[in-house]
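TetR/AcrR family transcriptional regulator
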Amino acid sequence: MGNKPIISKQQILDAAFALASESGLAGLSIRDVARACNVAVGTVYNSYPTKNDLVNDVVGRFWNEALADRMPHAVAGDDFICFCRELARQLSEALARFRDDWLAEIAALDAQGLAAARKREEACFAHIRRGLVMALERDPHVVRDRLHDALAPEPLCAFVWDSMLSSIKHGDPSCQTLFSLLRSTVYEA
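Predicted structure tokens:
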């Protein structure tokens, strides 16, 4: 019995992500990933029992790299609106890449694969919403007395994130209306 290459799930994901970034999700195959890793096809299947499992990790990695890992850091004293503007800029860039490269291919996944991809995406978005809450809470100019009920940090930041996504998807990457409303709602006039 010869020596089998030892490869981690992370190395397999790295190769799959590189292949998908280069040729799209449709071009991603277990065989090509195995070839890129210089391992047998079965080795890839040991880490990823189905192609859907692999695609879902690739999609999760896309969102993590595009947004969650590059998300602006909330520093005490920073302006919440400036934080949101930078996040909107990054989101706009990420959605453009995602649309161009992978959106149609994700829609072609079977129901189970699509549900798993959405779950990975939502985990990334939850991380971003937590970052928005942190940025809001660290902005010393926010009027704290206004942050209650529907405007408490968590529901407000969920609304901000959903509104940013919607604005950008509908061609308004500046999110001017949202940011104007925020400025007049959570800051002193």
